[in-house]
Write a structure and sequence with these properties.
The structure is a single chain. This protein is α/β, with parallel strands linked by helices and 139 residues long. It has one domain: Rossmann fold, CATH 3.40.50. Helix content is 25%, strand content 29%. The chain contains four helices and seven strands. The protein has a seven-stranded mixed sheet, with helices on one face. The longest helix has 12 residues.
Length: 139
Amino acid sequence: MESKLVYKNLDELPVVAEKILNFANGCKVFAFYGELGTGKTTIIKAICEYLHVTDQTSSPSFNILHEYVTQNNTPIYHFDFYRIKNLNEVYDLGFENYINGENYCFIEWPQNMEQLLDVKNVKIEINVEDEQRVLMLSL
């Protein structure tokens, strides 16, 4: 299953977030692909806002993992594998436990650890075209 979403400005992100979650049809693992600056973290932040996260969301680039909490005290996990040097870092996090759980997991730079991403996930490819963001979703 595939879908294409396009947005031009940040005001459209709440609707984009809702469409992404609807497309997922209950899947809770999301893999975000895109070059630096394409808006991976920005889209994750919009999804977290839609899910009523009470914490400040940001890129976990330096920590690899951020945990956020919703109003219902439900954890959401945000991974950024841009800086990993080897797969042992991913194993050391207990990554399998997170993605096999019941909570949302948002993964930036999944191509750096793709062989460990063996669960059903929503793949989101982000490209910048003519001053707009084009998202290709596949499940």
